[in-house]
Amino acid sequence: MFHPLPLYIGLRYVRARTHRFFVSFITWAALVGVGTGMAALIVILSVMNGFEDELRDRLFSLGAQARVVAHESAAGSQQIPAAQWQNAQRIIRDSKGVAGVAPYIEMQALAVHTPEMLPIVLRGIDPQAELSVTELSRSLTQGRFADLVPGEDRVLIGSYVAEKLALATGDTVSVLIPTVGDGGVFTSKLREFTVAGIFEVGQLDYDGTYFFAHIDDVSALNPGNESGHGLRIRFDEPLQAPTLAAGLRQRLPKTFDVIDWTQDNATYFRAVRIEKTMMSIILLLIVAVAAFNIVAMLVMVVTDKRTDIAILRTLGTSPRRVMGVFITQGLVIGWAGVALGIVLGLLIAFHVDTIVPFLQHTFGFQIMDSEVFLDSTIPSHVRWPNIVTVGIASLALTGLATLYPALRAARTAPAEALRYE
User: Fold this and answer.
1) pLDDT on residue 8
2) Cα torsion at 71, 76, 79, 80 (round to 10°)?
3) Alpha-carbon Rg of the chain, whole angstroms?
4) Fewer CB within 10 Å: N-end or C-end of the chain?
5) Dihedral angle computed from the Cα positions of residues 301, 303, 306 and 309, in that order, rounded to the nearest 10 degrees
6) DSSP character for 1?
7) Which pTM was predicted?
8) What Å distances lie between residue 253 and 74, 97, 121, 123, 236, CA to CA?
9) CA-CA distance, 147 to 244, in Å (whole number)?
């Protein structure tokens, strides 16, 4: 004999075939609705995770995972000697978890190619050291850092700048750099650079802003001025950058500050988190609507089973056990929908790279036009904490949906229910 009576009767009600078509229809609608909502939520979150990872990779291709700059008080005095920078570089290189470190200099400048001009950031780099901290030279440029030879005034420029200024490899571009002369008087220097290559990373902040030149060429534009100097760091584990950067901050002299990539790109990733949160809430509404179907279905079942409820109460079944019958029925339907949605969502999320091209080929449309987007593929990355979170949220919603019908069943008066039977 099956001892838990509420579970036994609840499962019987789930398996029983009813002659009421509308009740059956709402039951299936609720199950499919919960499954569809869960599947959509998992797929959308996985795709957004994929885009977030792709954005991070693109930022890492040019941006440092961490950088060391002069502390604000020291930067104002501009008195940090080169020996201190070299000592800081040695400390960082010898630290655990550091894959590479490279010096750099940044200056605000104006790029001029008659008749157009654009504000840019001129970054001086050490080509050999830069190979250890960035992916740019390996895959994202037509030129190479090795082409930046000291004394030849050569630069790598972004694709957006090249388009706006009508520049190609081998062309000459004028760079106007504001400097501070004797007595604090603002002056400017004009230097001609030759375009050694054009890079494109798909981020306007880089493609439309940065010029890369050899650090010796940039330093010669304003000798003796330490403003804009810094060190770029790459870690073995990029996601551990905040922790590793905090450790470096403790080991370096107080004249230096360490800024990791989560601080430099906080706006980007804050926007992604907000979008993911709002998208999760919106898609959970699909599950909520399906939960309302569970409520409607159970209310009709309670009405249909009033006689059964009255008989159970007459035989001594407590109101709590009557509640358990309908909670069991609702949970089985709701949780079956959640399980279906998780399976379907994971199947789609793991095979987005196959499903999307098939749909595009079959229906003749392009989801991400290659003429608009640098990468027309749709990335997907399943994160199990996301699956667990949305799964628990959906289970809770479907569980709450069973409470009102179950309470209504528990309050059924046996005499009233049997009066007209």
Assistant:
1) 67
2) 20
3) 32
4) N
5) 40
6) -
7) 0.70
8) 11, 19, 28, 25, 23
9) 32
